[in-house]
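Notes from the 1:1 (GR / supervisor)

We went over the backlog. Supervisor wanted to see one worked example end to end before approving the batch request, so GR pasted a single chain during the call. The sequence is below; no edits were made to it. Supervisor asked that the structure be written out right there so they could see what the output format looks like.
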Amino acid sequence: MNQTPLDRAIVEAGSGVALASVIGVTPMAVSHWRVRGVPAHQVLAIESATGVSRYDLRPDIYPRQSLTLNVNLRAGVRALKLSDFSSYPSHKSEVFAGPTGFWLQVTGNSMVSASGVSFPEGYLILVSPEMDPRPGQFIVARLTDRNEATFKQLAWDAGEFFMKPLNPAYPTKLMGDEWEIVGTVVDAKIPRSVFE
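Structure output shown during the call:
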């Protein structure tokens, strides 16, 4: 029988219980991963603890090569052409956004926070259209009837999804049928031009 990358990690750690202890999860969680797969947020911890490569544990998010693209984005709802990305330069990332992943440059200040996570104007964000977002994650969403998009944090409250800015001066918006999620933000960085 072929050994999966998770099985190799368990062998390297000594046992499923030992792997769980080293990375700070329950043994039951490790057991569940054998069926459901390793969650993205645990991949680097497993790699660090066992030496089993992230590329083997989750090739869907850490392939050996990545393709990323770049367009401009306003943190507030502004015009964004979500069509021909091929003419934009790519940026390097250790996170794979899938074969259709792309970079956006943030403009505006609705995602600037006085404390905690913040995405000031000029920041680059890597968007994965293949990754299903969960509440608390950052998303890019677009209006379905026109080519306008926004970058916000996905929130869930009272049975409804909302798009929440980090800047309290901007309103939280209900994510109704007029919106569709373009992708989940999987990485962010300060552009090199800031340092030039």
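Supervisor's comment: The mean pLDDT is 81.
Batch request approved.
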